[in-house]
Amino acid sequence: MAGIIPKKNPMPSQEAEVRAHNFNEVALGYSEETALNEASRCLNCKNQPCVSGCPVNIHIPEFIAKVKEGKFEEAYQIINGTSSLPAVCGRVCPQESQCESKCTLGIRFEPVGIGRLERFVADWHNANTKTAPEKPESNGHKVAVVGSGPSGLTCAGDLAKKGYEVTIYEALHTAGGVLVYGIPEFRLPKAIVAKEVETLKELGVNVETNVIIGKTLTIDELFEMGYEAVFVGSGAGLPRFMNIPGEAYKGVYSANEFLTRSNLMKAYREDPVTPIMKGGRVAVVGGGNVAMDAARTALRLGAEKVYIVYRRSMEELPARKEEVEHAQEEGVDFRLLNNPVEILGYNNPDDPRDPKNGFVTGMKCIRMELGEPDASGRRRPVEVAGSEFVLDVDTVIMAIGTSPNPLIKNTTKGLEVNSHGGIIVNEDGLTSREGVFAGGDAVTGAATVISAMGAGKLAAKSIDEYLNRN
Amino acid sequence: MYKIVSKKPLNATVTQMEIEAPLVAHKARPGQFIILRVDEDGERIPLTVAGTDPERGTVKIIFQIVGATTEKLNHKEEGEYLQDFAGPLGVATETEGIRKVCIIGGGVGCAIAMPVAQEFHRLGAEVTSIIGFRNRDIVILEKEFTECSDRLYVMTDDGSYGREGNVTVPLKEMLEKGEKFDRIITIGPLIMMKFVTLTAKPYQIPVTVSMNPIMIDGTGMCGGCRLTLNQDGKRVTKFACVDGPDFNGYEVDFDEAMSRNRMYADFERHAYEEACNLFKKEVA
């Protein structure tokens, strides 16, 4: 295969030692020249294996072909036909386990940088195209979308394009869900999320913030208000803790709280109105993307030392590869095959008013080794007897997942949930209630942005079919 | 944006406002709370609903100036707007089967206790209220409590108004005399609620306490408001925003809750001073 460029064009990035101290975006994006070069690596396979790896089935070879020709806006329109959030996906999708994992080029060389090209095209469009999208003619049907995270935005976008009158109800004060409160600025600038929400509004989507469905309004009331179908994309809910001693000490956060303080409430700014513990020594427990985000945020907030404490090995670490590499480059210390058993706190027996009382002083861990594979197929970590040690930290961030929010299930009669509290849906995204569809973390528990988008997309299609049947 | 339709000082540091928020006004029940932001980029703070007027679409809030955000809120005037106002959140106070109730409020906690007392009165229960303050200058809502209570005890720490002593004094007297309540509901400083619970314990009267931990989203997402309950010898983590704010007083780990509430004490003191300086400059 003469003439093939074996490696992906590298992503220009801020230097590790610089970016570890600021909240600006780490990856800077391809230039036009680099994008043209990367696009030229695509073999344009007839059977399009990459498309099957994409949860929203973006027409990948077609858009890359347009990039090759330098027709960036046309490339954007192709992506936009199937994805409502191209600038977001290009940044946060785990491409290495999706589209790029199926790339033919990847069999012998590095796969085409599909995610990087997607990001380039979306950014090019946002920078160069000023015309607002045309608002489709209304088909007279009203649909309510609960939650403005990736699944809700996708569902709303797809329905709006078909002429539905869509209202999104968001519980927080800003639209975007996890894209705003969870994923940090340095990985996904909030201006990009705001722009995607703006685009939806131009398509006619109405966004109502500060409305908590299940509290301010119930699902039943939405139907009384004239909505003919409802999509529930209310996202992940209550953070999980390990139920080990000491988790109530001051300095123990859930990743949700730590990231919400920094991202949504802007605690990272010079003079914040919402406080957060900055600096010191930080342990983040968990190995997913959320753990990486929390660790890298702590670093940027001025921590002198940040550990990732994970009970399995690097091979089982579920985070997106690029995030792990970035975290390592920035100096995050990975303590793998370790599991916390207790969080230690300060208690002055002579002075109950000592202001240091109740703050974290360390985390006791135990070493683990990998045993036989468990139900998930991964080797089960088992404790090494007598190997306890204390990690000297003053902040502990638990990033071990969430369980679905109980507010909607508690106030919606006939809405069935599974033993974890996740809403039960069929293969069309339909719940046990007529006209109520659901998707994203509210159904699956904590998962990825793109899988939530896939669920939102599926639900939009099902809602369209449902309302046309009647 | 949410309009401030009325504003009235109740004492030097406690203010009452009515906010136009029709959806919240239609739904809110006694014991529930709202989250507000004063301005763009402001902090989210929880405040308990002090009353509603569904017809006018307004929600009453009563707050004490304790920090930067409440200071800023107090500088907003009638006719001005709040950036965000979301709710109602939390579970409403349980009223079913309670025919005789003792409501105990402390300081600004009386603002939260008041709608609860009014609700029991409306439901026809026998209401005994005990409200406590540091001194006569900060006594609030006496008239409202008189109207909805069969018996009312007003207490001040220094005896400058009503009776001298804290709220547990009349409670203890009543219990010692053999008075029975279906429920004691107490709302105020954690230390007060802890001692109300301890006072009631020998008489095995169920005690409901209203917890007020640090919160951010208030919708069951961040976990910052968690507290520990001792249930059948087990320590159980609960979230005040979705499981509460009312809890069984006998189960709550008050000492832990008090410690957690002081997590950002230094930051808060500093932010409050900054805010005060800012307003002083504006005046000067």
How would you portray this structure in words?
- The complex is a heterodimer of chains A (470) and B (284).
- In chain A, the strands form four sheets. Chain A has a five-stranded parallel beta sheet. Chain A has a five-stranded parallel beta sheet with strand order 6-14-7-8-9. In chain A, strands 10, 11, 12 and 13 form a four-stranded antiparallel beta sheet that branches.
- Chain A has 470 residues and is an alpha/beta fold.
- In chain B, strand 3 and strand 4 form a beta hairpin.
- In chain B, the strands form three sheets. In chain B, strands 6-1-2-5-4-3-7 form a seven-stranded antiparallel beta sheet.
- Chain B is an alpha/beta fold.
- Helices cover 30% and strands 32% of the residues of chain B.
- The mean pLDDT of chain B is 93.
- Chain B contains nine helices and 16 strands.
- Chain B has three domains: 88 residues, Elongation Factor Tu (Ef-tu), domain 3 (Beta Barrel), CATH 2.40.30.10; 110 residues, Rossmann fold; 74 residues, no CATH class.
- At the A-B interface, strand 5 and helix 12 of A face helix 1, strand 7, strand 14, helix 8 and helix 9 of B.
